[in-house]
Amino acid sequence: MNVLDLSRWQFGITTVYHFLMVPLTIGLSLLVAAMQTAWVRTGDRKYLAMTKFWGKLLLINFAMGVVTGIVQEFQFGMNWSAYSRFVGDVFGAPLAMEGLAAFFVESTFLGLWIFGWDRLSKKAHLACAWAFSLATMLSAYFILAANSWMQHPVGTIISDEGRPQLVSIGEVLTNNTTLAAFPHVIFGAFAVAAAFLVGIACWHLWKRSDEEPVWRASVKLGAWVGIVSFVGLAITGDFQGKLMFQQQPMKMAAAEALCHTEEPAAFSIFAVGDVSRADCESVKSVTVPALLSFLAHNDFSSEVKGVQDLVTEYQAKYGENYPVDERLGELSGQPIDYVPMLPVTYWGFRLMIGFGAISALVGAVALWLVRGGRQAPTGKWFPRLMLLSIATPFLGNSFGWIFTEMGRQPFVVAPNPTGVDGVWMFTASAVSANTVGEVLTSVTVLTLLYGALAVVEGFLLKKYVAGGVAGVMPPVKAPTGDGKDKDSDDKSDDDDDVLAFAY
Amino acid sequence: METFWFCVIALFWLGFLFLEGFDFGVGMLLPVLGKDNTERRVMINTIGPVWDGNEVWLIVAGAATFAAFPLWYASLFSTAFLALLLFLVALIGRGVAFEYRGKVDSERWRKNWDRVIISTSWVASFGIGFVLTTNVHGLPIDEIGDRVGGPFSYLTWQGIVGGLAVSGFSLVHGALFTALKTEGEIRERARALVLKMAPVALLPLVVTLLLVQFEFGGPATWGATVVVLLAAVGSLARLWAGREGQAFALMGVAVVATVIALFGAMYPNVLPSTVDPAFSLTIENASSSSYTLTVMTWVSAFGAPAVLVYQGWTYWVFRKRIGVKNIPPVHVPS
């Protein structure tokens, strides 16, 4: 293993792991804010219970999202210092904006929300929930702007030092790649939160837990959000795909294992045989004629370029061999492999779509099963399948990211076909000049730590899921009237007040 | 413009050292000032609503360095690789520990997370003090900005003293904060502790400042160093007189002066090279283009004051002292 491979593994592991927490936080925080809004408007205790229950799970998850996010920021400098030097002028800006404009808001208002139950008026407290959840979306926007610039660099020229130099922040923030990725990722986040609601609430309905209305409302909310999200994912995904055919044709050709240019091109549903790295000739695909042409260009007869022809094009444009540079190690002077790992792109693409579709289907089935006040089915398979289905949108998200990031290789900054010449960078040239020992230490330490934390988070989530509403709602005090057992508007100055929430 | 951004980054460090300084300290003092679980919960809850926001100051300091001085960011982070890894591990453990400690009602569970909070607060404060001080003294970097020598070639005793400086300062700052935010026995204990330990705990900070001043200091930074000393002594005097708020504020003045003394001494370098002064990164050769700096200036001109306002509001909302009687009984799923 060399520093490059280890650094790539580390980035992959830490990113996929971080992105398990992020979509749940984004999706769930908005749904919790909506639940709390319903409570403030109606005073219905059911909505308060939902806010508290799902809010607690949100917090358990958010803690992990934050701490793993810091690693993401640090490793650009630690593991990819050559990258940071090269692109800092452009890439650093959206990252800093994320911190300054979004992340400060998130962490501050989350603190206010957690501890503010009896310190703030109901409305101010609700406003904190919204500030927090909207800031998570804003965070996502800035991070996607940074990522999209790596997929499709815009708004830059090459400076006198030979580095990309920002000339238009507006272009970077309104990059069409960002505008397409943002709704796709947000719908993905809602799909995750939706499956989380449906899976857990169905389990409680099956268990015939107390507070049935809470679970029933959660299933309904989750199922509808899940179905709408899938429709959103399909539409935005199609839009994104068309952009990608223009911006990174190699990635899409690899996603289809399309060897030779075809006119019209067929869409591969699944492949039999060896989707191997070097050659896609041996693949026998089950295809739908002309569909790929339509997906790429909205035209059933258009030409779609295949991997082999693209390789020739890329070699002509970006060179056949890596430069001779000792920093590139064993790759120095070697031929550049422009074909991303086919099994990863091909199956990553299909698994993303497949898992996304399953999660929407589960929502629809759940909705059907509990329609009109019906009880959840008895038997063992129902709760198990429902709990298992929570994983599907997570998997869909992960495969989506793996596909989009690995499909860009060997570039870390993919060239923009219509952009300024020279704004691109090979991943091999991006890595820090660290020792194998150092990077091996960091991969090992972070992987083990993440593994241990996953166990702890899983344990806590399980405990709080099983605990239901009773585990998160304070025991009802003296009978002060139904549905209004806790008056948050009462802000007396009594110093002996017990905190409504405390660690 | 480069100078302005140098100051902005110093400001983020200031925010971090001032704010996270005391929440590091509260974590470190958990076993000393909190005699039982309820008292420990009082301490954790003094920082509960704010520690997360405090930490963002560091994250933004890092991101702002990336945007405004990418070469500084790249060289510092890749050179001090293992030190930063250790620091990251501590921050991860600490963040999770605060959130998870109270989620299970078991003595063993709480004891283990307490251990995590205590040790990671020490490691994190030491680690960031180490990185900051070695940055001021310089790192062994070549003309590209890559490290010369092995994974530990940047390890110096000045850096270790610097690590102790931030840990020691955090202890005092955290105890002052506890005295300011609690009532009853914890408050008394915290006051007594500061008066007893401050001279020892602040010693590494004084040594660090003097080392930096002897090496790089000018009249202004020597002045700032004197202010640190006066403010620290004044802080202890006010605490002696029973005025915790003034004591805490004066300690704040000491942090401001410390940041001025450290960053002022470094200026116009951002990262001196100990291999050859010609390889040093300066505000000129390490910075982004003026367009990027302009964009960032607009963003921070609106963003930073807003942050100060709403974070200030948070502290106002949770301004009350808390004590054992404010802590609710444990309520978690069985």
Q: Specify the oligomeric state.
A: heterodimer
Unreliable runs of chain A, pLDDT <50, ≥5 residues?
478-492
| Shape descriptor of chain A | globular
Percentage of residues in helical conformation of chain A: 55-70%
Helix/strand/pairing category of chain B: mainly alpha
- The rounded distance between the terminal residues' Cα atoms of chain A is 44 Å
What is the β-strand count of chain A?
A: 6
- How many strands, what sense, and barrel or not for the largest sheet of chain B? 2 strands, antiparallel
Low-confidence stretches of chain B: none
Mean pLDDT of chain A: 89
InterPro entries (chain B): Cyt-d_oxidase_su2
Protein name (chain B): Cytochrome d ubiquinol oxidase, subunit II
GO molecular function (chain B): alkaline phosphatase activity; electron transfer activity; metal ion binding; oxidoreductase activity, acting on diphenols and related substances as donors, oxygen as acceptor
Membrane topology (chain B): Multi-pass membrane protein
Can you offer a commentary on this structure?
The complex is a heterodimer of chains A (503) and B (334). Chain A has 503 residues and is mainly alpha-helical. Chain A has 14 helices and six strands. In chain A, the strands form three sheets. In chain A, strands 1-2 form a two-stranded antiparallel sheet. In chain A, strands 3-4 form a two-stranded antiparallel ribbon. Chain A has a two-stranded antiparallel sheet with strand order 5-6. Mean pLDDT of chain A is 89; it is low at 478-492. Chain B has 334 residues and is mainly α. Chain B has a two-stranded antiparallel ribbon with strand order 1-2. In chain B, helix 11 packs antiparallel against helix 12 (244-266). The model of chain B has no long low-confidence stretch (mean pLDDT 94). Chains A and B meet through helix 2, helix 3 and helix 14 of A and helix 3, helix 4, helix 5, helix 6 and helix 13 of B.
